[in-house]
User: Which sequence fits this backbone?
């Protein structure tokens, strides 16, 4: 049973880079059985897929965010990370790290979710 | 991009009643790669259904999913008090994963 836990600053200034880390326990981030992803949810709104990464290093990013997003894996720490550059108030959201079996390329249903972390973009 | 439209936006029902939630896709969802999630306030979503009709581990059998192509349905056969929540559908049949806007099931 995987467990995921997000960590990172809760407040980021406009134009700066949002950086979050997800620590994985109960399984290896090098496993071919899972993809590792990030999803966000603005307050009171719906869910938005940000992107995902596979153990091979392959990544997929939401085209609407692609120019600003980087997802990477640190196998030595069993963690994966999200960086979102040039943030604005529109990037204020609860950010979830997530995982599941890769059903289509490196995406799929989300079996495991972190608890979520609210990131506010404000000066 | 596959746009998922969920209806109704809000469903007002009483415990014990049957709930039928719809998720319509703007184009066919490959291999029925469609999932349903339940989200309660302050919590992360929870996977209910994947592959359009397969229940996730530990999900009660009052939850069922059906459909294919562009039309999918989540049915809750008899609403329990803990089922009042927001429900989202998700398609993962293309590399551009998308979610529906959600249906809120509220107590009447």
Assistant:
């Amino acid at each position: 049973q995987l467990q995921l836990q997000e960590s990172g600053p809760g407040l980021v200034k406009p134009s700066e880079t949002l950086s979050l880390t997800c620590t994985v326990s109960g399984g290896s981030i090098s496993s071919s059985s899972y993809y590792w992803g990030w999803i966000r949810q603005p307050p009171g709104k719906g869910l938005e897929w940000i992107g995902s990464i596979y153990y091979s290093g392959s990544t997929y990013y939401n085209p609407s965010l692609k120019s600003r997003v980087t997802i990477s894996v640190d196998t030595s720490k069993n963690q994966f990370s999200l960086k979102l550059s040039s943030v604005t108030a529109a990037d204020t959201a609860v950010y979830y790290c997530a995982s599941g079996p890769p059903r289509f390329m490196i995406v799929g249903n989300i079996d495991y979710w972190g608890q979520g972390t609210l990131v506010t973009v404000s000066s | 991009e596959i746009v998922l439209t969920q209806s109704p936006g809000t469903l007002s029902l009483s415990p014990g009643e049957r709930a039928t939630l719809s998720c319509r896709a703007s184009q066919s969802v490959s291999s029925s790669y469609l999932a349903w999630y339940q989200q309660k306030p302050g919590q992360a979503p929870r996977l209910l259904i994947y592959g359009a009709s397969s229940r996730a581990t530990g999900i009660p059998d009052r939850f069922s999913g059906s459909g294919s192509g562009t039309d999918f349905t989540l049915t809750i056969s008899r609403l329990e008090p803990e089922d009042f929540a927001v429900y989202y559908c998700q398609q993962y049949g293309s590399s551009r994963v998308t979610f529906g806007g959600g249906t809120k099931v509220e107590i009447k």
Q: What stands out?
A: The radius of gyration of chain A is 13 Å. Chain A touches chain B through 21 residues (CB under 8 Å).
